């Protein structure tokens, strides 16, 4: 089974783990069934007069073979556990009897130690190992105290088995802790992959073929089964697949940083199109490398982005059509927004105004200083400033009379306000008013010079 299957297919992983444990258990059963008969043969050959009934070992071996056969039948799974404990405990106590009857022969002590170690391999629960080792060691101590009269022999035998039992407890306890920690990490990894809100793929870097994917990927791409995606090239997921040359350029670009993010259009198996943010990174798995590909559905974000862009264009058209001067400056006097009317006064474009100040367009420093002073007054006081008439000279040297309104305006991330300015060109209106006043004065002088009485009454 490939490592990607172990990462993403939790059900397969659990089933495979159970099969491996069952195979190990079967090997232990076969070892014990043959182990007990072979050892008896060696012991009898070395010391023909030892106490070691063949019948008991044959019965034990036969029982283990029965358990071995039953492991292939799921309906006996629960019964096997109890039968297993019963047979192993029986043989363990029989091994203690052999040690006792044969005057604590070193051969049978070694057999006992090996047997305990093999039996512990069959236990999966920590508490079962503790209970088994505790009972076996306590029984050995009682047997040793009853048989051995010499203190040194008692101490040596009990210490030997005690040290070994302690080592077994430490070894298997550590093994179980490591297995539990690995199981927790594996569950966490499975949860992260399978419960992720994004589509996640594992791909072969050399061929770009999809090795595996999570459930979200299957749902996002509307696949009936995960296998529909596995085996396809990542390029197949795109609405507009890369050409061979473009795909090679993409891989070269990725090779520089081993990480790449792109916003692309993808298509599902039902030909539905959506926008996705594709992030590819290279991860080390075992002795090799894989691509970890994350695809996030950003269709709504792209729609919102397009809407914002359309609104921005519309706003730009509106303010550019307004004949009045409209501008927005930050708290340093730099243009942030300016319409076409402002740009025309400076003989430039709205885009060229952004980031510049009035001083960048005036040769006379005092004019730019006066404008900056008015802007800073609004920024510092935070109050609106209205000037009914403000004289302004454009880039061509023409004198304009503007009715200026400056309003404090807070720009995002700036603590101090900027300035929103609206200026109405009243040059012609002022000129017309001056012309009208001059004509009125001239008419008065003419009337005053006439010797006759001239007057004007209303109807009443």
Description:
The chain has 460 residues and is α+β, with helices and mostly antiparallel strands. It has three domains: 3-193, no CATH class; 199-297, PAS domain (Beta-Lactamase, 2-Layer Sandwich), CATH 3.30.450.20; 307-433, PAS domain (Beta-Lactamase). The chain contains 14 helices and ten strands. The chain has a five-stranded antiparallel beta sheet, with helices on both faces. A hairpin with a 5-residue loop joins strand 3 (259-267) and strand 4 (273-285). The longest helix is centred in the middle third of the chain and has 44 residues, at 151-194. The N and C termini lie far apart (112 Å). 18% of the residues are buried.
Distance between the termini: 112 Å
State the oligomer: single chain
Strand content: 15-25%
Specify Rg, calculated over alpha carbons: 46 Å
What number is the mean pLDDT? 82
């Amino acid at each position: 089974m490939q490592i990607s299957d172990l990462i993403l297919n939790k059900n397969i992983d659990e089933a495979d783990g159970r099969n491996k444990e069952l195979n190990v258990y079967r090997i232990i059963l076969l070892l014990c069934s043959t182990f007990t008969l072979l050892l008896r043969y060696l012991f009898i050959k070395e010391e023909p007069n030892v106490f070691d009934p063949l019948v008991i070992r044959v019965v034990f071996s036969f029982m283990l073979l029965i358990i071995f056969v039953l492991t292939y039948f799921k309906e006996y799974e629960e019964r096997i556990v109890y039968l297993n404990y019963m047979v192993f405990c029986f043989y363990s106590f029989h091994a203690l009897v052999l040690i006792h009857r044969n005057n604590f022969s070193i051969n049978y002590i070694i057999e006992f130690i090996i047997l305990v170690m093999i039996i512990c391999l069959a236990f999966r629960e920590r508490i079962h190992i503790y209970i088994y080792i505790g009972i076996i060691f306590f029984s050995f101590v009682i047997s040793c105290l009853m048989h051995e009269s010499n203190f040194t022999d008692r101490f040596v035998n009990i210490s030997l088995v005690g040290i070994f039992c302690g080592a077994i407890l430490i070894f298997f306890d550590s093994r179980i802790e490591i297995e539990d920690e690995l199981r927790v990490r594996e569950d966490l990894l499975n949860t992260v992959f399978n419960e992720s809100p994004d589509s996640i793929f594992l791909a072969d870097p050399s061929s770009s073929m999809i090795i595996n994917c999570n459930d979200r990927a299957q749902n996002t791409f509307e696949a009936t089964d995960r296998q529909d995606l596995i085996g396809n090239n990542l390029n197949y997921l795109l609405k507009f697949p890369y050409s061979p040359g473009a795909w090679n350029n993409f891989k070269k670009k990725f090779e520089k940083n081993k990480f790449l993010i792109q916003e692309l259009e993808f298509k599902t198996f039902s030909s539905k199109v959506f926008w996705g943010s594709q992030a590819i990174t290279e991860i080390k798995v075992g002795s090799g490398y894989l691509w970890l590909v994350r695809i996030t559905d950003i269709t709504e974000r792209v729609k919102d982005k397009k809407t914002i862009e359309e609104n921005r264009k519309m706003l730009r058209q509106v303010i550019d059509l307004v004949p009045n001067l409209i501008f927005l400056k930050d708290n340093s006097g730099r243009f942030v927004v300016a319409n076409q009317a402002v740009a025309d006064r400076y003989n430039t474009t709205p885009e060229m105004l952004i980031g510049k100040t009035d001083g960048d367009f005036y040769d006379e420093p005092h004019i730019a200083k006066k404008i900056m002073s008015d802007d800073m007054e609004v920024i510092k006081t935070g109050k609106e400033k209205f000037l009914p008439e403000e004289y302004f000279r454009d880039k061509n040297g023409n004198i304009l009379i503007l009715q200026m309104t400056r309003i404090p305006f807070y720009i995002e991330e700036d603590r101090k306000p900027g300035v929103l300015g609206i200026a109405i060109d009243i040059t012609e209106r002022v000129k017309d008013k001056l012309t009208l006043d001059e004509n009125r004065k001239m008419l008065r002088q003419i009337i005053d010079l006439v010797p006759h009485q001239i007057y004007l009454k209303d109807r009443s």
